[in-house]
From TrEMBL:
Lineage: Eukaryota, Fungi, Dikarya, Basidiomycota, Wallemiomycotina
Entry GO MF terms: oxidoreductase activity, acting on the CH-OH group of donors, NAD or NADP as acceptor
One of the Pfam families matching this protein, by short name: adh_short_C2
Listed name of the protein: Ketoreductase domain-containing protein
Keyword Acetylation attributed: no
Keyword NADP assigned: yes
Coiled coil residues, start to end: none
Keywords: NADP, Oxidoreductase
InterPro entries for this protein: KR_dom (IPR057326), NAD(P)-bd_dom_sf (IPR036291), Sc_DH/Rdtase_CS (IPR020904), SDR_fam (IPR002347)
Homology family: Belongs to the short-chain dehydrogenases/reductases (SDR) family.
Ranges where the Ketoreductase domain occurs: 21-202
Length: 266
């Protein structure tokens, strides 16, 4: 039986270093994903490969280059499952040394409607992007990482991994499943030196939440419920994602870390 390798006995600075790491990330053209991709480069990642719908937006790529890391774009629409199935192989073709050390599933979409009116098309779109694409990319990563006995997978869950929310039945279902998928893959792959964890954002000021931010009554209710007294910002995720991508989290697996200003604690 294989076992998890021990955490290296090195300095704290070395534990958090991403020197030499190749990272594949979805959803990094804006918001949380963009902040994470740039932060990973600033933490020393060698090569950050961005999964984008097209190459028209090079803002993240340019900032990664400015941080001293290499960046490439793999083109794929996460709602197209045939395209998603080719993403990991396409990333391996451009990755330095032909390997991926860290996969970050951050891409996602949101659709809001009362459940009695929620369309089947919206349901399928949300489940495909937020869950099936995560599964397909994680499976491809596992097939690459397990034989190498090295790798990290970081999924983006949500407060709705734990709670039902309002008028977002598909999103809550997908994010609940992402939490369970994270645990299921951890159970299989931890002993192979593959750490599978998730980050669950709270209420974050991004365009995905623009409808909530524009609703004065709902905004007031939410603000009163957040112990930190403010909504989160994309920059609040750089520290957690660097931790999970580094050797500092070697013995952490199957966990869902909430980054929510204390919402779940309350």
């Amino acid at each position: 039986m294989t076992t998890l390798a021990e955490t290296p006995q090195v300095s704290p600075q070395a534990l958090f270093s991403l020197q030499g790491q190749n990272i594949l990330i979805t959803g990094a053209t804006r918001g949380i994903g963009q902040a994470c991709a740039i932060g990973l480069a600033q933490a020393g990642a060698k090569h950050v490969i961005l999964v984008q719908r097209d190459t028209s937006n090079t803002t993240t790529k340019d900032q990664i280059n400015q941080a001293g890391s290499k960046a490439d774009i793999v083109v794929a629409d996460l709602s197209d499952m045939q395209a998603v199935k080719g993403v990991f192989d396409d990333a391996l073709k451009v990755a330095d040394g032909g390997h991926i050390d860290v996969l970050i599933n951050c891409g996602g979409i949101q659709r809001r409607s009362p459940s009695t009116q929620f369309s089947e098309d919206d349901w399928d779109d949300v489940l495909n992007v937020n869950l099936k694409a995560v599964w397909l990319l994680s499976q491809a990563a596992g097939r690459h990482m397990v034989p190498r006995r090295h790798g990290k997978i970081i999924n983006f869950a949500s407060l709705l991994t734990f709670q039902g929310g309002f008028t977002v039945p598909a999103y809550a279902s997908a994010k609940g499943a992402v939490g369970q998928l994270t645990k299921a893959l951890s159970n299989e792959w931890s002993k192979e030196n593959i750490n599978v964890n998730a980050i669950a954002p709270g209420y974050i000021a991004t365009d995905m939440n623009e409808k909530l931010l524009a609703d004065p009554n709902r905004l007031r209710q939410l603000n009163e419920r957040i112990p930190a007294g403010r909504w989160g910002q994309p920059a609040d995720f750089v520290g957690p994602v660097v931790f999970l991508a580094s050797e500092a989290s070697k013995y952490l697996s199957g966990e869902i870390i909430t980054v929510d200003g204390g919402w779940m604690g309350r």
